User: What shape does this take?
Amino acid sequence: MKLFEIAGSFGLDRLRCIERPTPKPGPGEVLIRVRAVSLNYRDLLIVQGKYNPRMKLPRVPLSDGAGEIISVGAEVSSWRPGDRVVIPFMPGWLEGELDRNKAASALGGEIDGMLSEFVVVPANALLCIPEHLSFEQAATLPCAAVTAWNGLFVSGNLQPGQTLLLQGTGGVSLFGLQFGKLAGATVIMISSSDAKLERARTMGADHVINYRLQPEWEKRVHEITAGRGVDLTLEVGGTGTLSKTLRATCYSGHVGLIGVLSGITGEVEMGHLLHKAITIRGIYVGSRAIFAAMNDVIAQHKLEPVIDRVFSFEESLEAFRHLESARHFGKIVISID
Assistant: This one.
């Protein structure tokens, strides 16, 4: 089989396509022909060596993938060859709270990921792909969609009529927009691109703010909410935007801390956090149980993920460079034929 790996040292130029023997499933495992994978910002950081510079190499990157079962190992009775399946971000996190061992099962990190023609995965981790979704669409779900769902409904307890703030137009934020509108929330989105904001508006965003034109966007949020602030934010910026997010949040509001696009270290104004009794909760994707609950809603409402562009397997490096350029709107997918 063919796969891509980070070879020898970090960097996009160190991403190599090589061949390895196709693995065989052991007891409780299945062999999956990977049909599509999608990229997350974490994947770019991993290849660049910025996520964990001490990561052992070589490493097959990417956490998100979907495919069809080719064969099953002993003791597997719940799946059959030909079943269409999607693989959770952490196959070892089936339910309950996150712990060290569950986190260590994150694909494309401490263990090899999905940028491969075939993978072996524990059978009890898999989920069926909703019937209306293609392999490419299903491959966008494991990280971005589950993260948004967890941040909104498991951690954030979003309620109809509440106000939701979303940052940018990447995968998490666009899933947040789709899920938030299904839940009856008022959605405010910020971005540096008027064109992207207009596309978000056509998807249902109630208010949009260009933060380059309005650098004090938190003041505009208060104008929109009549001085109250938002109930919930999916914070993808990190320390570079967190202080503004706290100023934009209402009393007893909630911040789901998800990303570090603007930085992982730096000063954060604590006054608003304390004075307004704001809750901040770190979100690291979610369990298989959370994924399954989300899939039920996706299937019920025939929700379709937003895909920016689909690359071929041979164009995997170009897909990473497209992610690095930040020109995308929605998810970047690689199809593996």
